[in-house]
Amino acid sequence: MDVRQLKFFLAVVDHGGFGKAAQQLMVAQPSLSQAIAGFERELGMPLFHRVGRGVVLSDAGKALVGPARVVLRDVDEAAAAMRALKGLRGGRVDVIAMPSPGMEPLTTILTTFLRNHPDVTVNVEAGFTPDEVLSSVRSGVCEIGVLGSAEPTRAPDLDVIPLENQALVLISGPHDEVPAEPTIRREDLGGCRLIVSQRGSLMRALVDDVLAEGIQVTIVAEIAHRTSILPMVLNGIGRAVMPSSWTQSAQRAGAHVHRIVPESYLHVAAVSRRNHLTAPATALMAEARRSGIRTHRHAASKSHDSGT
């Protein structure tokens, strides 16, 4: 097999069929179909099953996807290394991030990274569950994942860097009546109209726990795309339980933010494969590691100063 065959194969996978893949590759569809058919003959097994006008991966195709992505990234890395020898710099790193960690700490990490590597392009895709992020990294679709979960991330097959723990907060609209204190107890959520994320998130779990305790709250909207929640809060539709990464944006927009006690934390981490990373991805993971170390040192210092 050669790089061209793998590139054609992944194009069909990523675009869901030969037509769109041919357009993306800027080749004639019959030429692409012939190339894949020849590849399958060389391998001695089908990579796709033809279903009507579409295709689905065969077992052999599913097994090839991950290694094919690794090979193409290695080729890109080799080309980047040669360009660097000529005095050129650049490259690309593919990241998948959940919405809240995608605001912070990812923004801070990327700010430093891109300042030091201005010619690198960072592509950030959206993931909405920890499993989705981990699966994307394991399959090679993205090199780095940034996720948040109710418990610290454990993935023995991946490099896991703990970044920070984000306490949950209540975000209220500019015109809502709120207490003067910086914290609010869970029982004080009684009577609130809440905009919530879908089941499975830590934020939704807290709201469900409050309901289970008999505290009367009203769920006015259930939103899959969490980036839509803050605008709804600002428009007075309801309040929202969110990770503290949203605090700065919410306060800048005029919203009120209160830390909810007793506290629940979203554990944020960066993950990548342990090997076959491109040079830009290796550098970005190194920056994530430095960020995590700084955050944990700062947290330890605050804890020491408070005497806890």
How would you portray this structure in words?
This protein is α/β, with parallel strands linked by helices. It has helices at residues 3-15, 18-25, 29-43, 59-85, 99-103, 106-116, 130-139, 202-212, 229-234, 247-252, 279-305, and strands spanning 48-51, 54-57, 92-97, 121-126, 144-149, 158-172, 183-185, 193-197, 218-223, 239-243, 256-261, 265-273. The strands form 2 sheets. Strands 3, 4, 5, 6, 7, 8, 9, 10, 11 and 12 form a 10-stranded mixed sheet that branches. Strands 1-2 form a two-stranded antiparallel sheet. The radius of gyration is 23 Å and the shape is elongated.
- DSSP summary, beta strand count: 12
Taken as a percent bin, the fraction of beta residues is: 15-25%
Instruction: Count every helix, treating DSSP H or I runs of 4 or more residues as helices.
Output: 11
Amino-to-carboxy terminus distance = 60 Å
Low-confidence stretches: none
What average pLDDT do the residues reach? Answer: 90
Instruction: Give the ordered list of helices and strands.
Output: HHHEEHEHHEHEEEEHEHEHEEH
Q: What structural category do the secondary elements indicate?
A: alpha/beta
Tertiary shape = elongated
The main pleated sheet reads as: 10 strands, mixed
Q: Could you write a compact summary of the structure shown?
A:
It is built from eleven helices and twelve strands. With 308 residues, it is α/β, with parallel strands linked by helices. Strands 3, 4, 5, 6, 7, 8, 9, 10, 11 and 12 form a ten-stranded mixed sheet that branches.
Descriptive labels:
12 strands; alpha/beta; 308 residues; two-stranded antiparallel sheet
